[in-house]
Amino acid sequence: MIMKKLVLSLLLIASIAIQAQESEKKIKIKTYGFVGFDAFVDTRLSVTARHNHVYLYPKKPNYDKNGVDMNDRSKFDFGAGNSRLGFAISGPDAFGATTSAKIEGDFLGNGSGNDYLLRLRHAFLKLQWEKSSLLAGQTWHPFFVTENFPSTVNFVCGAPIHPLSRAPQLKYTYQPNADLSLSIIALSQGDFKNTGALEQVEMATPEMNVQLKYGSPKTFFLAATFGVKTQQPVTMDADSIYTNKNVTSLQANLSARYTFPALTIKAEGIYGGSMTNMVMIGGIARKTEGGEPINAEYTPIRTSSIWTDIHTNGKKVRFGVFGGVTHNLGTSDESTVVLIKDDEGNILIDETGYTRGSDIAYVYAIAPRVTFTSGKVKIGLEWMMTSAAYGEDIDENSKPIDTTEYTNNRITLGMRYNF
């Protein structure tokens, strides 16, 4: 009898173990992405990157000895490097949370002239509890609000007016209900770095962001983000002495979206200092006092930006338009990016390596578009007019003055086969 009960108990335990194993979630991998082709025509040579896929703004004149502007000419390009491949992964629960991961890349290279090399876009894991989550890895910077960004045919989504950045990060989100979430994010810098300064990983503290989201993109959505980061421009001052003087900058945005049955309206405002890691104009400038440079001391160049994007919600045909402007507001302290001191006009200090578009006062763009979708194929056609106001000089706060506008018109044809 005892032996019979023992056998029955072992069989029961084995049965429970088998059922537990069968109920455990298996790892699932879903492949996604698209094969893409883009064709561009520009009426003026412009500042671009990634084999012309990343468009920013038109170049200022570059005159030959006869006074001919060599940048005042047209250019075209075809490219397929924006084609994308990703893997979405789910699997067994861990630490009482559902688990997921994603890894995604494209073929736009490393930005150093090596086009069409595989480039990492996203690589992260996520633990999701009932009312909170933890994300670790590389994905969109919080200032790129995934629920609300321009739907341009040009894949840079309105840069440099709209932020464009991905970053390695740790992100904790508390979500008490479906319409409200609060996130705290610590970030480093990966593919998208601040211009000139030491990499963020050299600092003792990461960039920190706090983000509040409310609502749903299906109806009304609102997001507010606040960030702070510290940079170290140099490790050695003008006297060849080690220095660890830092520059602290603040950033903030407010992003809103309203979706009607037939129309979607998006808008956003951004303000902050030293946002070149988001592919925006600005950076940092050298502090001065009475026109004289202060040894190894820098200050953030402030940038503001506002944009809107409106489109219809048709399933097969959509019409839309993007428009926005970004301004270089200069620094709050007396500063310079280029200091000309002698009578011959020789540049004695050049800090433009810490900036993007340091001689640009503002950039504005307007881009109407139409897209057609049939099955897995999407075709988009867009005309984007972009103007940049270049200054002949800068004031005592590194703000460009005496400006002249230069304009480029880009026609983009984009084709995607989604899978």
Radius of gyration: 25 Å
In CATH, the topology is named Porin
Task: Write out the CATH superfamily name.
Answer: Porin
Derived from helix and strand composition plus strand pairing, the structural class reads: mainly beta
Largest sheet: 16 strands, antiparallel, barrel
Low-confidence stretches: 5-23
Total domain units: 1
Name the average pLDDT. Answer: 91
Q: How are the strands of the biggest sheet laid out side by side?
A: 1-5-6-7-8-9-10-11-12-13-14-16-17-22-23-24
- Quaternary structure: single chain
What is the top-level CATH class? Answer: Mainly Beta
**How many strand segments?**
24
Number of contiguous helices: 1
Please indicate the percent range of residues in DSSP E strands (runs of 2 or more). Answer: over 45%
First-last Cα distance: 62 Å
Second CATH tier, the architecture: Beta Barrel
The geometry reads as globular
Helical fraction: under 10%
Helix-strand string: HEEEEEEEEEEEEEEEEEEEEEEEE
